[in-house]
Design brief:
By secondary structure, the chain is α/β, with parallel strands linked by helices. The protein is 34% helix and 29% strand. It has a five-stranded mixed sheet.
Length: 188
């Protein structure tokens, strides 16, 4: 006799707790619905900064000439505590440049990666069939500050397009993203 009220209570509790949970969902990555962390760098932060700077670069005088310049992504430097796969950012830049029709972009062959190119140093360029008109570098720097329980984390993203033969800067961009939160939400 006492089983029915207990079973009803258990079933009601389960239904109510399930109804209050957020259901799993697939999000549109182009919207602002995604989780924003205040404890470190998100890949979304780096991709957003890369997109903003790439759009700015495409508006520069470099791309006003009749022939699309040949660009090689040469350097990715991450001077932050957060590990980011370089290709998660650099692929977005290459896609934007290529799809704009304003640039031609050298891509790695086979298992050739940015890390392999960087470890080969100056010898890498000597083995290329095509010499780029420009090289593109991307760098991320972080700066941490605190005041009482408030923590602030600022990321500076830098991108440079350099003439390959003269090493003269043709375009440079910088994007800054700052995150702020209380000690309990920041985690450092």
């Amino acid at each position: 006799m006492h089983r029915t009220p207990l079973l009803t209570l258990a079933l009601t509790t389960t239904l109510l707790s399930t109804a209050c949970e957020t259901p799993n969902q697939r999000l549109d990555t182009n919207t602002r619905q995604r989780i924003v962390t205040t404890s470190g760098l998100d890949v979304d932060d780096a991709v957003r900064a890369a997109n903003v700077m790439t759009e700015s670069m495409l508006q520069s005088r470099v791309f006003a000439r009749s022939e699309a310049p040949l660009i090689e992504v040469s350097t990715f430097i991450n001077n932050t505590e957060t590990q980011i796969d370089p290709d998660s950012v650099l692929k977005k830049i290459r896609v934007e440049l290529t799809n704009s029709g304003l640039a031609r972009v050298l891509t790695p062959r086979g298992h050739d990666t940015l890390a392999a190119r960087q470890s080969a140093g100056g010898d890498y360029a000597a083995h290329q069939e095509l010499e780029p008109d420009y090289t593109l570098s991307f760098k991320i720097i972080d700066d941490r500050a605190k005041a009482g329980n408030i923590r602030e984390l600022t990321y500076t993203f830098q991108m440079s397009l350099t003439e390959a033969d003269t090493r003269i800067a043709a375009w440079e961009g910088e994007e800054i993203i700052t995150k702020q939160g209380s000690k309990a939400t920041v985690g450092w």
